[in-house]
Amino acid sequence: MSLSMLRAPLRRAAVAGTRTIPRAQFRPSFRHYATESTQGGTKSNKNLFIGLGAVAGIGGIAYYYYSDARSEAGTAVKSAVQTAKANTPFKPTKEDYQKVYNKIAEMFDTAADVEYDDGSYAPIILRLAWHSSGTYDKDSKTGGSNYATMRFEPESLHGANNGLNIARDLMEKIKKEFDWISYGDLWTLGGVAAIQEMAGPKIPWRPGRIDGYAKDATPDGRLPDATQGGDHLRKIFGRMGFNDQEIVALSGAHAVGRCHSDRSGFQGPWTFSPTTVTNDYFKLLFDETWTWKKWNGPKQLEDKTTKSLMMLPTDYVLVQDKGFKKYAKAYAQDLDLFFRDFSNVVSRLFELGVPEQQFVTSEPWIMKTIEEQQEQSKKEQK
Ligand code: HEM
């Protein structure tokens, strides 16, 4: 397999790999995280505010009619009402978030213009979403996607985040256009777009994250170390609240993207189609013979047949460890099962650290792919 074959344009790969997934399959099992806030937002509080608002509203209307009799004062009140309206904070709708999604999706393909990797920024944008969410600690309820603290040093400089400045810079351009969106929402929506545009399953998503401060940044060492084994994976992902099955499903993200020796030290892609979400990662783990690569870099495996693919020690452990192996086998044999479990667990991953009452909706949204929107507008034109 030559490198040029790996560099198939994303759009073509995505179209070829497009699958129809029954909607019901993605109905997520909603979790109420341990981070659920104990402050504010209770029904009685809300009712109190509505009540106060109503009193103020009635008072306002009464004042309006009283002063309207005296035309000068009436004009003043009218203009005050207009100013109040203008000052009402912008309340984005699902359509507004879809616009952001579209802008991110359009950005992915611009990688081909500068011959970046395999012609898509989608894998690195997915890595950004994962690294901003995977810092969550369920015991201290710190970290996770809520505050997007990777914007701050030292978190931005943590070894695990090497290279993600590229992803943050790309997202910064989108943030300039849609300044109302929080970084946490922007980055996780990027992860959703990356998976969906690379022909993966739909990822139910909800907005509501808020921007935090440098003080909220997480300590180094919360993300997995690729040189380690099963105990380490269970410790790191267990801290986020994930079990063996979920660790294996999440690892399936390595169907896409590649390692870069100037970022992590490791080198190469996991699969022959690094811009399409498939279960090939699991298939290759079982079907190929993997040997330790002889080179000057960190310990990694290569496939015996082409020597062009790689596996990290933490990938290989999924077929070595009994607890993980049964799930890896199931995903290698059943793409639909992998897609369903991957969708559920990624959706949860992206919500780690976000208090439930912060979300603007209890029912998650399914964002449309660019292709679906194109098909829809074609139908409407007919
Ligand atoms: C199981 C523990 C994991 C370890 C040890 C690990 C480690 C790594 C390493 C070392 C790289 C290469 C970075 C580079 O050199 O550019 C990488 C890339 C990547 N990882 Fe993971 N990862 C893990 C889990 C995950 C998860 C849970 C996801 C997403 C749900 C993910 C998504 C990605 C993607 C998409 C890339 C490719 C980025 C690119 O192409 O630039 N990884 N990972």
Automatic annotation (TrEMBL):
Organism: Lyophyllum shimeji
Transmembrane segments: none
Family recorded in the similarity comment: Belongs to the peroxidase family. Cytochrome c peroxidase subfamily.
Gene Ontology biological-process entries: cellular response to oxidative stress; hydrogen peroxide catabolic process; response to reactive oxygen species
Superkingdom in the source lineage: Eukaryota
Subcellular localization, as worded in the UniProt entry: Mitochondrion intermembrane space; Mitochondrion matrix
Enzyme class: oxidoreductase
Gene for this chain: CCP1
UniProt cross-references to InterPro entries, sorted A to Z: Ccp1-like (IPR044831), Haem_peroxidase (IPR002016), Haem_peroxidase_sf (IPR010255), Peroxidase_I (IPR002207), Peroxidases_AS (IPR019794), Peroxidases_heam-ligand_BS (IPR019793)
EC assignment: 1.11.1.-
Domain Plant heme peroxidase family profile: start-end pairs: 118-354
Catalytic activity: 2 Fe(II)-[cytochrome c] + H2O2 + 2 H(+) = 2 Fe(III)-[cytochrome c] + 2 H2O
Name used for this protein in its record: Peroxidase
One Gene Ontology cellular component: mitochondrial matrix
Function summary: Destroys radicals which are normally produced within the cells and which are toxic to biological systems.
UniProt GO molecular function: cytochrome-c peroxidase activity; heme binding; metal ion binding
